[in-house]
Every structure is written in structure tokens, then in C-alpha cells.
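Example (one chain per record):
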Amino acid sequence: MNSIASQSAGKIRFFKADLLIDGSYDQAMEGCELVFHTASPFKIKVKNPQRDLVDPALNGTRNVLASVNRTSSVKRVVLTSSSVAIVGDSVDILDYPGGIATEDIWNHSSSLHHQSYAYSKTLAERAAWEINKEQQRWDLVVINPSLVIGPGINPHSTSESFNIIRQLGDGTGKMGTPEFFVGAVDVRDLAEAHFNAGFFPGAQGRHIISAREVSLLELSEILQKKYGNQFPFPKKNLPKFMIWLLAPMAGVKRKMVRKNVGYHWLVDNSKSIRELGINYRPVEESITDYFQQMIDLGVFKK
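Predicted structure:
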């Protein structure tokens, strides 16, 4: 981070803050016109979803926006929500108009004990819109990304997306992978979406940020074309009944398997292209750049 700052105009300042402490962002916001609220834990396996997911996402959003309300200079807030605040389970899309998800859709299928991460993101975004409606000074622009891939500024990632892609090459899925479809977006395109959401005067509302739908097996096949047999990539989809049977052993709930495996993940990203000017990188570029960074870091032990 410091090396990036040294190569850029202006200066970067750091402040101590905590999402769960009211008022801890007041000092950092002083004199600012634009606030980006990006922090929320992305974890799939948690022991206490209320404590580990809902509280940081919901109370964190409330605390940040309370600071915004106390800071008269702020004119716009850009909130990083998620596509899971739109789509809870892939099967839900079958009931959407035209069989595709748009920014008009809200996730109604997640709960504290089913897709709890999606539930936390949905609660947090809804709270942000409610707080925004109660005042007239600052506007709210929301970014709803799908699975984020691509090389990071901080390569030593602990994110869930890092774990998903790592497992394609570390042998975890060498016997096969679930027929699981996701949306994918390059982290560099997502960064541009945030910037444009902050600085394009006409930006408003929610924005699905996703290049396209892709399956885990397709990601594996892309990597196989690049790296051949250097890594034990999955080469087939496992039967859904097998995934369903083995799910508890992997810490995955069978309900999640039933409602997601085998169902396509279809969303309309045209608003992000039209209003934020995003020109999405090919998923092939994103996944190979990401995987190569992992190789360079020595993530995969020979």
C-alpha cells in the first residue's frame, strides 16, 4: 500500500476505526465529500453467523452511515453490497421475470441459518437504503459484485474467493467438482466500477457487477489449457446426489446443494456497462492472472 502511495499524486492518510464502534469513522470522514464503504466479512463457514457475519455487516453499515449523517461535507456514499443481496440461491432465478436477475430483485430466500452470508449482505444493503431515504444531503450508489477473481494488490489473501480458486489447483477437487455456476468479475473491473460510481454524476441505484456466468469446471478447463497437467485440476462434474450425500462432511448444508448445484446463475449486467462504462475483461484473463499470482507466491506445494 505504501509503495502505491509513493508512486501516486497526493497523499494517503490512515485512521484507526472499528465497524462495531459508533463514531469511530467521524475523524476519517471530516471534510470528505465521498465515502466508500467496502468492508464486510466474506466467509462461508462460520460458527456463529449472527456474530461473525450479520453484526459486522449490519451494525458496521449503520455506524458508517451514522458518521456520514454527522459529517456535513459528505455528498455521496458508495456501498459495496453483493450480488447475493439480489440472488440468494441459483434456483430462485427460475422465478424471476425472464429467468434473469436484475437490480430490481431482492434476495428473499436467505436467512440466518441458510446462506447466512447472503442474508447479512441483504440486511446491510436494505438498512443503507432506509438510512439514505431519511435525509436529502447525500446520495447512495451501490455496487453488487459477483465472485471476485483476478490478481490482488495484497497477494496474501484470505478471502473465500481465494480459497475457491486455490482448491481448483491444490488437489481438493481432483476427483471432480460440483456443477456449480457463479458469476465472475475481475477485481480490476470492480475497482473501476467503484471509482466510476463515486465520480460519475449520473450514477444512481444498484449495479450488478459481473462479467459473465461460469461454472467451476469451466474455470478448471481454462486453467488446464494454460497449465496442462502441472496441477491436479478437476476434469469432470460430480453427480449431484454424491455432492448432497457428502456435503455435511465438508461443512456444507444439503439445502444449499439442493438449491444451487446444477442451476444456472443468470444476471443482467447491462446497467453497469451502460451507466458506469465498464468494459469487462474476459474471465479467461482474470482466472489465469489470478492463478499465476498464486503460483508466484508458492501457494501450491510441489
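Caption: The first helix runs from residue 2 to 6.
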